[in-house]
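Worked Example 4.2. Read the sequence first, then its C-alpha cells.
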Amino acid sequence: MAMFRFTAPPPLSLYVHFPWCVRKCPYCDFNSHAIREDMDETAYVQALLADLDRERSAVVERPLVSLFFGGGTPSLFSPDALHRLLEGIRARLPLAGDCEITLEANPGSAERGRFEEFRAAGINRLSLGIQSFDDEKLRALGRIHDGREACKAIESAHAAGFTSLNLDLMFALPEQSLPAMLADLEQALACAPSHLSLYQLTIEPNTAFAHAPPVLPDDDTAWAMQEAASEKLTGAGFEQYEISAWARPGHRCRHNHQYWTFGDYLGIGAGAHGKITLAEAGVIERHRKPRHPRDYLRAAHGSGTAPFGVRHRLSPDDVRFEFFLNALRLTEGFDTALYPAHAGLPWPEADPALRRARQEGWLEQTGDRLRPTERGRRFLNDVQALFLPEEDEKREPHHGQ
C-alpha cells in the first residue's frame, strides 16, 4: 500500500563520492581514507559507472539538475578520469541544460595545476576546502596547505574561468579570537568568491579531535563570531540563504538546495548515500553503499545487475523528521506547498512540534511561508529535535549553541 502521494517526483541530483585524501584531517568524520596503493582511478571510475547502471532504472528519463563530486578529495583524480566519468554519466542519464557540476578540491599545488583541465572536462563549479588562511590554524586542523597556497589556488581557479567558486571556511577554531576570525573572513572576501560555506568547527565522534580535543572558543564567543560574520558578509553583498551558506546573487548552490528541500539524489561511490522517490508506487527509499573502498569495488564489480548496499523504505515519521531537519536550515524558510510536493504527505497544520516551536518563538509563519526566527536559527538543534519521531510532547528543549 502506498504511504505517500505525488503528482510528480522531486527534482533529481547525483552525488559521487571519492573516498581518498592525501591525509585524514583530525576533525573529519566523512568517509575518507589516506591514499594507499588501493587508489586505482581506472578501476574506481568503472565501479562508479557499474554502480550507476544498477541504480538508474529507478530514475529513467529524469534529468539531473545537479551533479556533485565530493569526498575525500575528488580532485586527486586526473582530469582525464573525471572526463571519462562525466561522459559515462551523460550516456546513462540526461543532464538538464543548466546542470550544476561541482568538484571539491584542495589548494595543493598538484591539484591547482589541473584547474583548467577540470574546467575543460565539464566541471562548471569549483569548491575549495580552504578552512583558514592562518598558517597556525591550518596546522592545528591538520591541513596540508598554507595560507599562501590557498590564495594561489583561488587565483588559479579564477584564471581557469570558474565564475562559480565556493570557498569552505571554518570558524571557532582552536584558540581562535574574534579578530582572527574576521581577518580570515576579510581575506576570503578579498579573493572574490561567488559563494562561501562558513562552518563552525565541532568535535565529532570517532575523530582524532574526539580522542584529544583541542581548546575551542566558548559558545558565547562562537555566537559572537557568527553574528560578526553575518554583518561582514551582508555588507559585502552576500545573502545568507542557509544556516552555513552565503552567496552572491545568482550563485546559490543548487546541489545542496536539493538536500535542504528534500529533493531526490542518487548516491554512488564508497559510502555514498541516496534518497529516491518512486512516485507511482508511493514509496521513498534511502540507499547506502559499502564504506570501505575495497568492499565497494568488490560489490560494484561483482556479478548481477541489481543495486547493492543497504536499502530501506522511509516511514511517514521518518519523512516528517528528515524534511524539517533540512528545510528549517533555510534562512528564508519554505512554502508549505513544498511539503506535499516533496514529502508526499498533507501539510501537518496541527503538528505538536510546529505548535511548540511557535510557542518558543523559534518559527514564524507569514501566509504560506514558514521560516525560523533569529532565535530559532540560534537554537536550531533544539527546533529540529522537536520533530524526532515520538518525541514531540516529551522532549524538553535545552538552549545550547
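Now turn to a second chain, presented in exactly the same format:
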Amino acid sequence: MTLAVPVSGRADQTASRIVLGCIADDFTGATDLASNLVREGMRVVQTIGVPTEPLTLDVDAVVVALKSRTIPAAEAVAQSVAAARWLKAQGARQFYFKYCSTFDSTPAGNIGPVTDALMTELDARFTIACPAFPENGRAVFKGHLFVGDALLQDSGMRDHPLTPMTDSNLVRVLQAQTRRRVGLIDHTAVSRGATAIMARRDSLMASGVSIAVVDATTNEDLRRIGPALKDLDLITAGSGIAIGLPSNFGIAPRDVAGRLPAPRGGRAIVSGSCSLATNAQVADFQARGGASYAIDPFKLEEDAESVGAALQWATAALQALGAGPVLVYATAQPEAVKAVQARLGAAQAGELVERALSRIAVGLVERGVGQLIVAGGETSGACVQALGIRQMRIGPQIAPGVPWCHAQSPHAGGEGLHIALKSGNFGAADFFTSAFDLMDGEA
C-alpha cells in the first residue's frame, strides 16, 4: 500500500470506510489525481497495484495505481475490476476511473473496455467521460479535445509511439471502443450549471445513451460539473474533474501536512517520454549546461553493457558536479522513435527502454541519488516497481499534476527517496530546473 498524502487521522486495526475509490491506469496519473484531491481537502492513500489487505488508515479516498494503459485490453479490464472490488469492500460510495488528459487509447481500448467493465461491475446505468485539465492546457469543447491551442489530432500526440491520437472528436473515439451509446453534454449545458447538466444527462439517458463526453474549458466548468456528478456510481475522467468532487462529500480545502523530510543525496533525472513537452524539457536542461547521457535503443538490443555504461557515466558526472543533477534519457523526436519502432517493433522497443531505464534508476539510487525525477508514465511505472516503492507521501507541487513525493525503497537506505513522477505531456520547458529549485526551498 502506498501512502500518497500525509494522513492526519488515526491508523488503527479496524477497517476504514472511504467515500471515493479511484482506479488510475498509470502511476503518474495516479499521483496527479491524488494531488488534486489533496488540494481540495481530501486525505488520500495511493496504492501500487491492487492491495491484498483491508485498508486500516483513516482517509477519505484511495487511488489504486495500475500500469494498465497500454497492456492488452482483457488484462486492463481484469486488473481494473479487481481494483473496483477491493475498493467496494473498503466502503467506497463513488468510483473514479482516471485516464490521461490526452485520452490515450486505440480503437481496441483501453478506455472503452475498462469503462464498460466497471459499469457492469458497479451496475452503473450512466457515466461521463471528461479528460479536461485546463491548468495543463487540456480542454474539451463541442466534444473535441484540445491540447493548448491545437486540436488533439494536430498535437504531438499524433506521433505517440504506443497510442497515436489522430482524431480529436472524443465521442467518435470512445464510440469505437465501447458497445454502449456515447453522447455529448456540451458547453451550452455546462455553462448553465449543475441543474442544466443533469437535465441534459436525463435527456441522453432517455434516448439510450449510457456515456456522455462532457465539455470543460476552465476550472470553473469543472466546478460546475462536480455537483452534477454527486449521484453517479462511476465517473471516468482525467484528473481535472477531481477538483469538483470533494465538496459533494462535505469536504472543503484545508491545510494538509505536506512538508516532506529534508532533501538529501544526489540529483538525477530519468526520462523515457518522447512527448513534445519532455523533448522541450530535455533541450532546456541541456541548453542550461546540464550533464546528459542519451540511451540508444539499438545498442540496448545488441549490447548488454549499455546500462552499465550509462551508470558509469552518471556516477562520474555526479562526483564531478557535486551531487548533480544529471540526466539519462531515451527521449527522442518522432522521426527517431519511428525508426526504432520500424526495426524493433513498438512493443519490444518500449520494453527495452523501460527495462533499461528502470535498472538505471535503481543503480542511481544505490549510488546515492536521493532526489529523482522520472519523466513518462510507462517509464515511471517501470521505475517505481523496480525500486520496490511501497509508500509515498505527496509534497509540494512542482507544476499542475506533478508533486514531489517521498518514498521508502529498499535501494535507498533508511532515509528514503524524494521522487517526482512526471507525465510526459506535463510541465513547462524549465520543469527539471524548477523542480530542483523547489527542493532547495524545502531544504
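Notes for the reader: The chain has two domains: 20-249, 266-442. The two ends are 27 Å apart (CA to CA).
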